[in-house]
Amino acid sequence: xxxxxxxxxxxxxxxxxxxxxxxxxxxxxxxxxxxxxxxxxxxxxxxxxxxxxxxxxxxxxxxxxxxxxxxxxxxxxxxxxxxxxxxxxxxxxxxxxxxxxxxxxxxxxxxxxxxxxxxxxxxxxxxxxxxxxxxxxxxxxxxxxxxxxxxxxxxxxxxxxxxxxxxxxxxxxxxxxxxxxxxxxxxxxxxxxxxxxxxxxxxxxxxxxxxxxxxxxxxxxxxxxxxxxxxxxxxxxxxxxxxxxxxxxxxxxxxxxxxxxxxxxxxxxxxxxxxxxxxxxxxxxxxxxxxxxxxxxxxxxxxxxxxxxxxxxxxxxxxxxxxxxxxxxxxxxxxxxxxxxxxxxxxxxxxxxxxxxxxxxxxxxxxxxxxxxxxxxxxxxxxxxxxxxxxxxxxxxxxxxxxxxxxxxxxxxxxxxxxxxx
Length: 422
Hints:
CATH architecture of the largest domain: 3-Layer(aba) Sandwich
Number of strands: 15
Shape: globular
Order of helices and strands: HHEEEHHEHEHEEHEHEEHEHHHEHEEEH
CATH class of the largest domain: Alpha Beta
Helix content: 25-40%
Oligomer: single chain
CATH topology of the largest domain: Aspartate Aminotransferase, domain 2
Structural class: alpha/beta
């Protein structure tokens, strides 16, 4: 494999067959396969045998973006509206004053006491099962640490498709095997989750509770009940919930946590308070959080308590009116979806700041929109097996631009009959 004679994805001979051809004990071959699997060189899929793992992606999906030239409106980056983010001066100053009175030193608790208390109270209010609180440097950091705490290279992970581009890069980069799970406006389809867990052997499932990127899907009460029933039959599956929409969406949270042995829920402050804060709340079962904290202690140690204190100040002072921010995004999102519907274009955007438009010709649609003065995100960044589409971020879209944008999208998309998520 090191010489390149075996190609990525190539099926390896059964262990007994290889042992016979080499003239060695089958246990020797089994030990060699186990070592290769643990090092992420090969992967095993039960009766389907072992094969060489595909090479990790060398180009991140984030590079599949359209650079907006001068005069072109950029609706592809996925950033929040800066006008809806709170100023951070007072919060950082308050954190600095606290630091002056009580300097942050080695050996202190990794989680600020006030941060943990306020975070846990908000989780309790949303019905998230009780669990200890950890702090990570954003949602992706939390997800990576939870996956690494429980899984080994070659394990399968069920992921939403279409889904978050960074996550679709992260899973294979960890030596894990992504299993696509189709979704609709209510989130992952229960039958798809069942297939991924039972048939594809997924050992973990990652679900975005609301403001799903790129589709805007939000898990409703009925869908949550269905997903809990599926997961209850597979208690060994690691469940990870991404609630990055907390603080800027109007859809209620319907957590799935509590039906599997190991679970985690993460809430980033990025979209509601500022992407550069790099702070996320992580809770979960005691074993999972303990493993995350233990490994974190061996690396960075902790997320800056200065930043934790700044977030505490933002929470205490009500720096963000979550309802008003959610309403602002909903107004733009719903208006665009409705404008597209009037033009015969199906679009999805139940929550959050993105609208997903299924298309027949992704490249052509992106190119035609660029020529018309609009840069959108190509769906290839977010897809595994799902059909083509484009993502439009409405966060910075003025009302006056809605109708011209809808005209441009309708002209670029063409016939759309029968098109869905794919």
